[in-house]
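Posting this for the archive.
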Amino acid sequence: MTDRRAELTANLAAVRARIAAAAEAAGRVPADVTLVAVSKTFPAADVVHLLDLGVTDFGENRDKEAGAKAAEVGELAAGQPPRWHFVGQIQRKKAKSVAWYADVVHSVDRPELADALGRAAVRAGRRIDALVQVDLDNPGTGSGGSDQGRGGARPNGVVELAEYLADLPGLRLAGVMAIAPLEGDPEPTFARLAVLAEGVRGIAAGAVAISAGMSGDLEAAIRHGATHVRVGTALFGGRPIKSDHVR
């Protein structure tokens, strides 16, 4: 076993143990929490190692890197290809590219993006699971992006955006996503997200996904019903580039 594979094996075991312990403490089944391994800045070889170890879901947040990596992994992987999650902000002009490889997009935060992504998915002959990203840092109203640059629909615009998204060809309303504040207790954010998720589930029965929690706060997210945790650093190690969507 190479040093890198051994490192990833140990890291994965530790993350899986954390997820299992958090789920059991919350009275939940560990298998109900999907680990999304966020591989931003790390090579396709790391993705292949984790695929071999049973990880099925991988996240990226920059289109140029994600598209190239998805293609490379497709060439390297011997078995089932991964399920790709796009977890970063998307410029509308990038929707066409993202639609070719992303199976799940966590960051739909405005109707214009939903329109572009849906049209691109139809042209690509695909149907993408779309999550409404919620901005819980900003008290403003409406369904525009965050003033802080992290993206997200304002809380009182979430249901309206979800209803809009649910009617678009090429997309399937899958649930909600949020990022906890960089500082402070993440519990209130995840508690608020859980309440908003109930409203979205009322729009589409299959919209059950709650994408919340990263390396430092996944336990809190699981306590509040997270079905997907986006883990980067705890799996891959430290990154040279900081990202709001990956901690």
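The chain is about 40% helix and 15% strand. The radius of gyration is 17 Å.
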